[in-house]
Design brief:
The complex is a heterodimer.
Chain A (H helix, E strand, L loop, with lengths): L15 H13 L14 E2 L4 H6 L5 E2 L3 E6 L5 H18 L4 E6 L7 E2 L1 H6 L7 E6 L2 H14 L4 E5 L5 H14 L3 E6 L11 E8 L5 H6 L6 E9 L5 E8 L4 E4 L18
Parallel strand pairs in A: 3-8, 3-9, 4-6, 4-7, 7-8
Antiparallel strand pairs in A: 1-2, 9-10, 10-11, 11-12
Helix pairs in contact in A: 5-6
Chain B lengths: L8 E7 L2 E7 L1 H5 L8 H7 L4 E4 L2 H14 L7 E3 L2 H4 L7 H4 L8 E3 L11 H14 L6 E3 L3 H10 L7 E3 L5 H5 L11 H9 L5 H4 L4 H8 L1 H11 L16 E10 L2 H22 L1 E12 L4 E12 L2 H8 L12 E13 L12 H16 L4 E6 L5 H4 E5 L19 E12 L12 E4 L2 E14 L11 E9 L4 E8 L7 E8 L1
Parallel strand pairs in B: 1-3, 6-7
Antiparallel strand pairs in B: 1-2, 4-5, 8-11, 9-10, 9-11, 12-13, 14-15, 14-19, 15-16, 16-17, 17-18, 18-19
Helix pairs in contact in B: 7-12, 11-12, 13-14, 14-15
Classes of the chains: A alpha/beta, B alpha+beta.
């Protein structure tokens, strides 16, 4: 039996030009010790200018752990949507298959639904779902997957992970330059984490436009994404939408609080 | 049972409401007892005989244990196979008294004897070890299954308890044996006796056609099987030497590190063998033999043929820790029971090939969590949402239908099964309108936006009494999005509303 995959190469973001640009970007940001042969970090650009410029790496560092916290059970679907948006971007930028380690019973919000995933830019032949029931198993599988260097990205649903566990994942992700996402409920205590970025994703009411508005139909899904911890960067919050037509993330406009502007000003860093 | 070795001892079984001897030991046989003899007669001959009821199930289990133990000699082992027992009715006392499984074991020693230094050495080792375990046993090795059966039971084995009929000597070896050695029914043997055909050699010069008409085709079949005119495998297929490697320890081992080291050695040996044949392992069985005759197995499977010892060793990692070595492990074997061709160039999994890394990862995950927990999305052509998108084991053949119509919105999470909700209807001129409010999991949601209905007809050929569903995508006042449906059935009851999924 063979798995049917696309070809596997590192994405174009790792090609010479992109490397060079990333290195220049880092020099421009004033980082020290960037030499011609210093490896540039592969970065996932979210495609939202305000957000990408806010993040210290010019996007989400790929060889790192990113944590998506669900503030309340009602936000589970929104947080899932945010993770899927990141995964679909990663799958577009990288070759290979994404691994989703599900923690049965932790999020009592049904199981992933393949036809819905396709609409969110996750082709069925580029996802493998692991059905697990214990944090330890999820953490083991995530680390194993990251260290193998095989998948395009690794996501794990984790109820509780301490500093040691997240640090292990962060190191493993860094070693193989694989992006790691952790989806965890935030209504339990959030705790410490070694993740590079930590997000709160909250559901927001959509703003239907055009015909949908006339018909009183739901608009594009809208979330409030709060970056509450960012290694080497400042916190911030943005309203974003998943655009069904383009299959991409976009800044929701106009929004209540100004997009791209850090809410907790003064912690820049 | 050493305590009973020197005393006359017999096992007794009840047959047609008579107690009959089932088995006797050597001391009892010297006194004139034999299996099949009524207990009353036996008591008359030897009043002091010790008797025990025969326990067939325990015998069968013990035989099965010894069979597993024999795995150290050959990967193809079987207890007296079913085909031998077929057609032997309960009312043929002699055969029934042969005991479960015919009281014997088959080992296909093809390609295994050299591991022990030859066929004689292998049998000597086998009998020696079985004796040390406390069993009396006889063994024979021959070109055919039938000949080995005959020689083991009727052959003139010497003190050692084993014989080897070298290739080409089957005729000579079988000729002097009684006709019963052909695995014939007692009735046939009695008929043959009646006309003076006592030895197998007596049958050989006779015309086959008349033998067949007079004594049945079974006689000719058994004769051919014993002489090698028809092929009778122990196992369904043993076309070539099995990929089987074995390691014996001078001192029994028990340390987990030693077990891991033994596995590494075996894997190296096995991978070298597989390289010679340009195959890779798809399934492995690692067996450890304890000094007390019990065994312990660990199995592993791979999605693609693998021939890299390190990659294969990882499949067993974490699963060797819970092995209880007992009083020590004296033998270890490794058997690749499933293999696939694997080109010579692709020996290792090392290198930058991410696809191979991913396969190796999937193998590890499957071995640790089970194939049923490592899943890929599967699309099925169906209107029913719960059938249209499911998950299937990653090891199963992918059979995805085309992606469904992208126009209809589908949730990212689906509730299985749909959850019934309380609704408060909207006042609307529409025939089918979404509710104004609904209660799901004790929380009240006020519907703000809605899109629909999307009508999905039941698949009546699959499910009886299924209703027609009208789906709505709705958004509540907090922005939460649900996939609701109303099911209308033929029954006069009011339609029910359900939550079927969550939109991101």
């Amino acid at each position: 039996m063979t798995y049917d995959y696309m070809t596997y190469d590192r994405a174009t973001s790792r090609s010479g030009m992109a490397d060079l640009r990333a290195r220049i970007a880092r020099i421009e940001r004033g980082e020290q010790g960037i030499t011609a042969d210093a490896p540039a970090l592969p970065v996932l650009r979210l495609g939202i200018a305000a957000l990408d410029t806010h993040l210290p790496e010019g996007g989400l560092a790929e060889g790192a752990l990113h944590e998506v916290t669900i503030p309340a059970p009602a936000d589970t679907a929104a947080a899932t949507g945010f993770c899927l948006a990141l995964l679909s971007k990663l799958l577009r930028a990288r070759k290979g298959i994404a691994l989703w380690c599900r923690h049965g019973g932790m999020l009592d919000a049904g199981e992933l639904y393949p036809p819905g995933l396709i609409q969110r830019g996750i082709p069925p032949d580029r996802l493998v779902v692991l059905n697990l029931n214990r944090d330890d198993d999820v953490l083991w599988a995530m680390e194993e997957a990251l260290r193998s260097g095989g998948p395009a990205a690794v996501l794990g649903e984790v109820a509780r992970a301490d500093l040691t566990a997240t640090r292990r994942l962060q190191l493993a992700a860094n070693e193989t330059d694989l992006p790691a996402l952790m989806l965890r409920p935030g209504w339990r205590e959030a705790g410490n984490s070694a993740a590079a970025t930590r997000w709160h994703i909250t559901t927001e009411q959509s703003r239907p436009r055009g015909l949908a508005k006339e018909l009183n139909e739901p608009g594009d899904p809208r979330w409030r994404a709060e970056l509450f911890r960012c290694r080497g960067g400042a916190p911030g919050a943005w309203r974003m939408e998943w655009r069904n037509e383009t299959g991409d993330l976009a800044l929701a406009a106009p929004a209540g609080d100004r997009p791209g502007k850090p809410r907790d000003a003064g912690i820049a860093g | 049972m050493p305590a009973l070795r020197d005393r006359a001892f017999a096992l007794v079984i009840e047959r047609r409401s008579r107690a009959v001897l089932f088995a006797t030991n050597a001391a009892a046989e010297r006194a004139g007892l034999s299996p099949g003899m009524p207990l009353a007669d036996a008591r008359a001959i030897l009043p002091g005989v010790t008797i025990e009821p025969a326990r067939m199930n325990a015998d069968a289990m013990m035989l099965e244990k010894i069979r597993a133990w024999c795995g150290r000699y050959s990967p193809w082992t079987a207890t007296g196979d079913a085909s031998d027992e077929k057609g032997q009715e309960e009312d043929e006392p002699q055969q029934a008294l042969e005991g479960p499984g015919g009281g014997g074991l088959w080992l296909d020693a093809t390609g295994c004897a050299h591991l022990f230094g030859g066929e004689e050495a292998m049998l000597a080792d086998l009998i020696g070890r079985v004796n040390r375990l406390g069993f009396a046993a006889r063994a024979a090795m021959a070109e055919t299954k039938g000949a080995a059966w005959a020689l083991a039971r009727y052959g003139g084995t010497d003190e050692t308890g084993w014989t080897v009929a070298p290739p080409g000597t089957v005729h000579a070896a079988l000729s002097p044996l009684p006709t019963a050695a052909l695995r014939l029914s007692p009735a046939t043997v009695a008929q043959l006796h009646a006309v003076g055909l006592r030895a197998i050699g007596d049958l050989l010069p006779l015309p086959r056609a008349s033998l067949a008409t007079r004594y049945g085709a079974a006689l000719i079949e058994r004769l051919d099987a014993a002489l090698g005119n028809i092929f009778e495998p122990v196992s369904p297929t043993a076309p070539e030497q099995p990929l089987f490697v074995r390691l014996s320890f001078a001192e029994p081992i028990g340390n987990p590190d030693d077990i891991a080291a033994a596995l590494d050695r075996l894997l190296t040996l096995l991978c070298r063998k597989m390289a010679e044949r340009a195959v890779g392992a798809r399934g492995l069985i690692f067996t450890l033999y304890r000094t007390d005759g019990t065994t312990e197995h660990r199995t592993a499977g791979t999605a693609r043929p693998v021939r890299d010892p390190a990659a294969l060793a990882r499949l067993f990692a974490d699963r060797l820790d819970d092995i209880d070595p007992g009083f020590g492990i004296e033998d270890a074997t490794l058997f690749a029971h499933r293999t696939d061709t694997l080109g010579a160039a692709q020996t290792g999994l090392a290198g930058p090939d991410a696809a191979r890394d991913f396969d190796a990862l999937i193998d590890r995950l499957v071995n640790r969590f089970g194939a049923e927990n490592v899943l890929r999305p599967r699309l099925t052509e169906s209107h029913l949402p719960e059938r249209a998108g499911t998950f299937a084991p990653v090891t199963a053949k992918p059979d995805n239908a085309d992606a469904p119509d992208p126009a209809a919105p589908r949730p990212v999470r689906l509730l299985r099964p749909p959850e019934e909700i309380e609704t408060i209807a909207a006042i609307s001129g529409l025939a089918i309108a979404p509710p104004a409010m609904f209660r799901w999991r004790r929380v009240l949601h006020r519907v703000v936006f809605s899109e629909g209905p999307e009508r999905i007809a039941p698949e009546w050929w699959r499910q009886k009494n299924a209703g027609t569903r009208d789906y709505f995508q709705i958004e509540d006042s907090a922005g939460q999005r649900f996939w609701l449906f109303r099911e209308t059935t033929d029954q006069p009851t009011a339609p029910c509303w359900y939550v079927h999924g969550l939109f991101a």
